[in-house]
Amino acid sequence: MESVRNERSVYLNGAFVPESRALLSFRDSGFVYGDAVFDTARTFDGRLFRLKEHVDRLFDSLAYCRIAIDLDRQDIIDATEELVRRNRPLLAPGEDYWVSQRISRGVMQLDGEPPIQDGPTVLIECTPLPLRARAAMFRDGIEAVIAPLKRIPPEALSPNAKINNYMNAMLAQREVTAVRPGAWALQLDMNGNLAEGIGCNVFFVRNGKVQTPRTDYILPGVTRGAVIDLCRNNGIPVEERDIPLHLATTASESFFTSTSLCVCPVRSLNGRPYLGSAGPVTKRIMGLFADLVGMDYAAQYLSFLRDGQTRTGF
């Protein structure tokens, strides 16, 4: 491997190279058409969490998009673990990584010209988690607002595949930011029920029961699945169901789950407040999740809270 002092490495098409030397063609189909898939795990105290589940979902996304690679699941796991091992010394104290595998169909071939690359582009990279930017969310909770743009229906594009093209979600977030700076967007499905946030799943607590949208219209998050299991194993009633706006706005608590946030309380929806910054059920689930990952992840975020820091959006 080429090495550059104090620079993170990436895995690119079979080689570990410094980030500054990881070059992609402007003709890569992932850049030109968004013809690519990805998945993202995270570390806790430098240790990867549920990497196999993330890689399994990555291969499901590859199959859905009909992108074939010469690597198997274990190859991707091994390369990811090796990359984290190389980059771990560059973590600042108290920090952790997002760790993403990004795979495109590869470089587009021009008629009559020799190919400049054979096969898909395979990239694995580490990005420090935005602990400072999101620290206040664990003090105050997240403000959520229903976006005017609905989630793309599964008849057009499966929400169960993690595909690079996030334009629908990003436009939804920008519409919300334009009227409520700092708020996170929630999208409805085409039937008018709650679907998901931007890179996160949503849960509601009503009469002591935890409820979350069915997977028909959402990406089934790895953290979402872990939380459902924690509820079932610890006597917390939980169900997957359609959630109309009325149910969401009359719930007593709400929280988001995602790879980076883990479990983070939602303090309000469309300006309607929930029980403080986190209700009792949400707090219990946050504690159970911290036990599962072997780390007080909320305290990790809060340790980066700067004096005077305000609420920060997506």
Structure write-up:
By secondary structure, the protein is an alpha+beta fold. It has ten helices and 15 strands. The protein has helices spanning 29-33, 51-65, 73-87, 131-134, 137-140, 167-179, 222-233, 245-250, 280-293, 297-302, and strands spanning 9-12, 15-18, 36-44, 47-48, 97-104, 121-128, 142-146, 184-188, 194-197, 201-206, 209-212, 238-240, 253-258, 262-269, 272-273. Strands 7, 8, 9, 10, 11, 12, 13, 14 and 15 form a nine-stranded mixed β-sheet that branches. Strands 2-1-6-5-3-4 form a six-stranded antiparallel β-sheet. Strand 7 (142-146), helix 6 and strand 8 (184-188) form a beta-alpha-beta unit. The longest helix is centred in the first third of the chain and has 15 residues, at 51-65. It is globular. Residues 310-314 have low confidence and may be disordered.
Termini gap: 35 Å
Q: In percent, how much strand structure appears in the residues?
A: 15-25%
Q: Helical element count?
A: 10
Could you spell the SSE succession in H and E letters? EEHEEHHEEHHEHEEEEHEHEEEHH
Mean pLDDT over the residues: 94
Helical content class: 25-40%
Characterize the largest beta sheet: strand count, sense, and whether it forms a barrel. 9 strands, mixed
Structural class: alpha+beta
Total strands: 15
Low-confidence stretches: 310-314
- The value of Rg in angstroms is 20 Å
Bulk shape: globular
